[in-house]
Design goal:
Blueprint: E1 40-41, E2 78-79, E3 82-83, E4 85-96, E5 100-112, E6 121-126, H1 138-143, H2 147-152, E7 153-158, H3 174-181, H4 192-211, H5 220-234, E8 239-244, H6 246-257, E9 262-268, H7 277-298, H8 312-323, E10 327-328, E11 334-335, H9 337-347, H10 354-365, H11 370-380, H12 390-398, H13 406-414, H14 421-430, E12 454-459, H15 467-476, E13 480-485, H16 496-509, E14 511-512, E15 518-519
Length: 521
């Protein structure tokens, strides 16, 4: 069973696609600026600057250096036909930075390409949701980067607190996972609010029983402090980070807490830590609705044509009505209309998955839910031993003060138009934190005052991390430079030659593109 803990069942809690036209659209999109204009060199990250700016985290952590050793057998040195030198180590951090006491051991791995020496710069890569890129994935993470970056950096991956082999990594019971997968599409439907309340209470009981009083210590603020412990353990005055999705949100929090410790920081598709989960649900619902239209319009271009017929969206909508409370698939999962919306919420931002998604949706429309169930089980790696939902539930609930009662979610959903599929579903998902303990360190505005230039990336039609939230993060961070991509893909890097050139130039040479740069599709 893989150790990593990754992917979110709860799209509205993320702290968690069509090709757009070549012309600039509504006013919320960036003004057109062709890449290739003047660039601004960034400060060299050789040493901490004098008069180093500090944030809420203080001047920086001080821990023992990592002792690199051979990795265990489950850490492969090979990926995508490329071999790396891989080494593993441990960084020790307190469970509670405020109270001290018990210590956590966070697993770290380093991958170096052939002929890259030990003295090369480090690049910490955090992709996806909490734990998705951990120690075991270091070779595949490195192999996914452009060759020029592999020659310039040793790639570092980290098991964030609560991931890997910890109790938090398996705090949800299998019955809670099944309930989450089988969520109602509309919390205002008959008995739906009651079922949602039962689910919220059960998953809270699961994690409080399995983790105990330290449960609230597993949040993004503490993870940002852990990153600075990693920086100190690597022996560098500043930290280079490439974060995507949740990893980008974490990077923004790090920049705010330790602005003087920022080296070169790429934030690819962050969520807005200033926005409450219900606000993000509303924004994301609109982005997903547009992405579903784009999926429907491009379905005919799939190899072999569109299995959903001439009107894919209508067929999907009809299937959701017929499916209703659901059918039990061969793998034992109850697949409801909410299950389908869950899968769509995740997969519409991954255009490579669209052929498989279209086939699975067509099968469900014909009465066979097994392909949908298999995609969910494979994607979130559901088993009786471990699942991939725990970390996102824990981090998502611990990062916000919002505790939306299911009854209120039902009232809000009922006020939405009947055809607002994602709006109703996502506002219901916010309520899964309704019974969760109060957070210790909820997220809020980030500033990063005094940090070196930070590169923020975003796709203008991203249905997973909506562009408005990405722009908000860029506007909050004092030294951020936003680069946009005319795309509906989640994650802008790698994203074609324009975006790749921007990121590689920034990370390797400190070059920043012109303000307002918009990369073409």
């Amino acid at each position: 069973m893989p150790r990593q803990l990754r992917r979110l069942l709860l799209p509205a809690l993320l702290v968690v696609a069509a090709t757009a036209a070549c012309t600039v659209g509504p006013s919320s999109r960036p003004p057109l600026a062709v890449y290739g204009g003047p660039t601004t060199p960034a400060t060299t990250a050789a040493s901490a600057p004098s008069g180093m700016p500090t944030g809420p985290g203080g001047p920086g952590r001080d821990v023992d250096p990592i002792r690199w050793t051979d990795c265990p057998g489950d850490v492969s040195p090979d990926a995508d036909g490329t071999s790396f030198t891989v080494e593993c180590g441990v960084v020790r951090v307190p469970i509670s930075y405020a109270n001290g006491g018990q210590v956590l051991s966070l697993d770290v791995a380093r991958a170096r390409a052939k002929d890259v020496g030990e003295d090369v710069q480090n690049l910490v890569v955090i992709r996806g949701t909490p734990g998705r890129t951990g120690r075991d994935d270091v070779a595949s993470v490195a192999a996914a980067l452009p060759a020029s970056l592999r020659k310039s950096f040793a790639v570092i991956t980290l098991d964030l607190r609560g991931t890997g082999d910890s109790a938090v990594a398996s705090c949800l019971s299998l019955s809670s996972v099944r309930r989450l997968v089988a969520s109602d599409a509309d919390p205002s439907a008959d008995q739906a609010a009651q079922r949602l309340q039962t689910t919220a209470r059960q998953l809270t009981f699961d994690c409080t029983d399995n983790v105990g009083p330290s449960l609230s210590s597993y949040d993004t603020t503490a993870a940002a402090d852990d990153l600075d412990n990693l920086r100190a353990a690597l022996g560098t005055p500043t930290l280079n980070v490439l974060g995507q999705g949740y990893g980008a949100t974490l990077g923004a929090i790090y920049a705010d807490r330790y602005p003087g410790r920022v080296g070169r920081l790429v934030l690819d598709s962050p969520d807005d830590p200033l926005a409450a989960p219900d606000e993000r649900a509303k924004t994301r619902a609109a982005a997903l609705d547009a992405a579903l239209d784009a999926f429907s319009q491009s379905c005919a271009d799939l190899a072999g044509g569109c299995p959903l017929g001439d009107k894919p969206r209508d067929r999907i909508t009809s299937m959701l009505v017929v499916l209703g409370d659901g059918q039990v698939a061969d793998n034992g999962l109850l697949i409801t209309a909410g299950s389908v919306l869950l899968l769509l919420s995740d997969q519409l931002g991954d255009q490579d998955s669209w052929p498989e998604l279209a086939a699975a949706l067509n099968a469900a429309a014909g009465g066979n839910v097994n392909p949908i169930a298999d995609m969910i089980a494979q994607h979130w790696q559901i088993s009786s031993v471990q699942n991939l939902f725990d970390g996102e539930v824990v981090y998502g609930c611990n990062d916000t003060t919002q505790r939306l009662p299911p009854s209120e979610a039902a009232t809000r959903a009922a006020a939405l138009p009947a055809d607002d599929l994602f709006g109703r579903f996502l506002i219901g998902q916010v309520s899964v934190c309704s019974a969760w303990p109060a957070p210790d360190q909820p997220l809020g505005r980030v500033a990063g005052t005094g940090a070196r230039p930070i590169l923020v990336l975003g796709a203008v039609d991203d249905p997973v991390s909506p562009y408005d939230g990405i722009r908000s993060v860029s506007g909050q961070l004092a030294s951020a430079k936003l680069v946009s991509w005319q795309s509906g893909q989640h994650g802008a890097f790698p994203g074609g030659s324009c975006m790749n050139d921007v990121v590689v130039g920034y990370l390797t040479d400190g070059h920043l593109p012109a303000t307002g740069t918009l990369c073409p599709p």
